[in-house]
Please model this.
Amino acid sequence: MAAKKKSEAETNSDAARDMELLHSMLLQRRFEERCAEAYALGKVGGFCHLYIGQEAVSTGTLSMLRPDDYVITTYRDHGQALARGMTPRSIMAELFGRQDGCARGKGGSMHMFDANTNFLGGHGIVGGHVPLAAGVGFAIKYRGGDQCIVCFMGESVVNTGAFHEALNMAGLWKLPCVFIIENNRYGMGTSLERASAIHDIYERGAAYNMTRQQCDGQDVFAVRKAVGEAVERARKEQSPTLLEIRTYRFMGHSMSDAVSGTYRTKAELEEYMKRDPITLLRTRMEANGTLSADQLTQMDTAIKAVVQDAWDFADASPELPLEALYEDVYVDTTT
Amino acid sequence: MPIITYRDALGAAIREEMQRDDRVFLMGEEVAAYQGAYKVSKGFLQEFGEMRVVDTPITELGFAGVGVGAAMVGLRPVIEFMTWNFALLALDQVVNAAAKMLYMSGGQFKVPIVFRGPNGAALQLSAQHSQAWESWLAHIPGLKVIAPGTPYDAKGLLKAAIRDDNPVCFLEGEMLYNTKGEVPDEEYVIPIGKADLKREGDHCSIITHGKMVLVAMQAADQLAKEGIRIDVVDLRTIRPMDVEAITTSVNKTNRAVVLEEGWEVCGVGAQVVDYIQRECFDNLDAPVVRVHQADTPMPYTKSLEKAAKPDLPKTIAAVRKVMYLD
Model:
């Protein structure tokens, strides 16, 4: 049986959605490219982990959420912060360590937070944030809401105790959590095969009686489909899901290490770069006739201007005054 | 005034706060069906139901993190550790998550949570179950640390801890649960960060907290028979510490003994002595003496365990030493 032909309105709406997805992914790419430049110039300090190559995971996932859902992630958090709708200005200012940053410059690259978008932070201890996600799921259930929490993590998290403790409780108590393993193949320089006793790591969910699935993380539509089902399961059945989304990072683990040549070969990197998630989406849209070369150029130019504006804004923002050192250690309130 | 146990004072504090605020819930190992490993939560499951009195698997790191996550989005968890010795497995959540969330989020996410449970040595529980953790926890900016020594203080301070919008570590004394004291029926809350002068005297100060408050009071009673009048300062809160209460006492008595259950090196007493040397240097008539656990893991054998623990004879000897009586 032939698939039902889409109406003109549906086709237009699909085209608009695809443009939004492409915009979100391209914004992350251009932002991270400038972030690398700022790091080289010494404007960004500390540890800095770029998201280039993984944009379909953040965009595909977060495009399926409602504003009242929650998001929590690791230290590789710039892309997800952007995809969640945090402003490039607030993120760049945070990277520059300035007072207009989303955490007033106190968090830096690894700790993006935004209460307005329920973005519960980038967290720096591998595995440490997974129990927090279970706690947010518990709170949703406690209140009787139909929100969900999405918890991003790298594949190396699955070997930590915190991951297992959290997934057990989420499975046991049926918490509305979507656990997303961004399997980019390497925990720093250690490959999945050298770190995990099993290689189809979504199967770890079997131990917790959890719905589990693997999907292609370079294809934004594959991500949207898998996440959409998981979100639905969380909302309607208050049941958790473990998704392994297979992706690849095109940069080093952080700004401190070589992109290739030590733990992975240049040939491997180049092979994976053939499946650049932005190129895949762009090619598909061009084939559908929903993206012209002019449109792409316009979008790219506009995005570059937005990122430049974020840079200028961050550069102009002052650092916090010294007396702010002691602010936010404690909150001076009780209930 | 009614006389109740330390255990019941704690239970009353949590019950009253759960009745007052439906965002407050109790979570931990054996808190619900078993009615509490130390029976602090006796009757809670029947009164509040399983959503608010939550039995967990044995998974300290996990449920401590569940508490932090729930607190970040507006609930007010009371997380019970069966003992603080087990909480070591959860320290990443206490230190890296709860204590730092407000700061690293630029003030956006507060974590109103209480971590509580028994702390310190009981009897013959040996090395892994006999440790006092307050100096570890008090080291961390972002945490508040409370160690009450009496039923009255336990109730008033636990209510304050549950109402506080910061993460609070609440250290109970395993050997204190059955001790009794006066606790009024009417509601009261004791401010966090205020020491209590448990006994007034002008010859020597004993500065202490938690389970050792009882030892200090016994020492004061016994020394009173020799005409020695002791000022007993119960810190009650370790962080923030009531420095003024310490210095006021020592500037009055000119002599101090600092008594704690934990180890000497980098202990709570080391911090107290630092405040004393900074603020009371010109008023001291003798070097400050500390009483603490021996610098060893806790032995099982009765005689060695007794030798390892701070106690009444060691405290009295310390007072006599700072008073140059021996």
User: Anything to note?
Assistant: The mean pLDDT of chain A is 96. Chain A is about 45% helix and 10% strand. Chain A touches chain B through 48 residues (CB under 8 Å). The domain at 46-275 of chain A is CATH 3.40.50.970 (Rossmann fold).
